[in-house]
Amino acid sequence: MDIPPPEDPLLQYLTSALLHHGHRAKAARMTSLTLLHIHAFTRAPPLPILREAIMAAAPAVRCMSHKHGSKNVAKPIALGEKQRVRTAVQMIIKASEKKNGKTIAERLAREMIAVVQGDSRALEERETIHRFAMVNRGNTLLR
């Protein structure tokens, strides 16, 4: 198995998302265990699977709520690359909490594989966000 370079920005970002109370070494261990579990479950290189999962779960838009008169109106806004990755990682971590598995790393690996296979809660959430943005796309003309 090829071990990815430690300065990979996506892995550092995933590590930062898993970080709790400043325990970076523990979060880095969780990230490497996640990669190990992905490799164990699929017998394929884990980094391309991780990248594909994050890109598949990344939403293109989000809706901001603002007041228009006395109403709260949702206005869709396009997301940049960093925002898309951040949202995708957060959605995958949240969806992995519902997976079965003993450790966080195992659940996260199962969720990444589920995203690539197309049956994940993170993908459902992305579709919901896109649907809501499409319904409210007429509100971009306001303000």
From TrEMBL:
It holds the Pfam family Ribosomal_S7. The keyword Ribonucleoprotein applies. PANTHER family: RIBOSOMAL PROTEIN S7 (PTHR11205). This is Small ribosomal subunit protein uS7 domain-containing protein. Belongs to the universal ribosomal protein uS7 family. GO terms for cellular component: ribonucleoprotein complex; ribosome. The keyword Ribosomal protein applies. InterPro entries: Ribosomal_uS7 (IPR000235), Ribosomal_uS7_dom (IPR023798), Ribosomal_uS7_dom_sf (IPR036823), Ribosomal_uS7m_fungi (IPR047988). One of its GO terms (biological process) is translation. Keywords: Ribonucleoprotein, Ribosomal protein. Residues 8-137 form the Small ribosomal subunit protein uS7 domain.
